[in-house]
Amino acid sequence: MEVLARTLLGIELEPQFNEPYLSSSLQDFWGRRWNLMASQILRLTVYQPTKQFALRLFGPKWASLPALFITFLISGLVHELIFYYLGRVKPTWEITWFFLLHGFCLLLEVSCKKKLTTKFRLSKVVSGPLTIGFVMVTAYWLFFPQLLRCNTFQRALQEYAAVGAFAKNATRTLKLWFNYG
Question: What percent of the chain has pLDDT over 70?
């Protein structure tokens, strides 16, 4: 997509992904490597305001935990809306459960890191495959089935065909207009 935008429009887009297959933790995957624009938007609109509110209730050490969980809840609900819009298929809430599961596991990860500080850290050789394996298994279990149910790929092809038909008709109309005008 970036190459297309740069070639056709002459603009440079920010990268959306930063080698997610090299993630060493869920925190690394969701915060620094996967869908960077969405992460930034959610950080500014949900995480930071929620964390500010939670500071009063939980203090500075633990305020990030409810903020993380609420951010994942909102992300799950937004994804449900997107999938409903794409397929007009009744939500099964699998996508929301996917994000809640990841939010809960991220809470555990952050809590363990806060409790253990630097006493114990998994090697990246171990944590990397565990992270990517967890993301892949949960995505195949909870995320992709809904994507397939709403026939996203078939609908995308229909949209491309509609754009092609529009362009063909517009070209035909312009030719007629210029020939008779």
Answer: 96
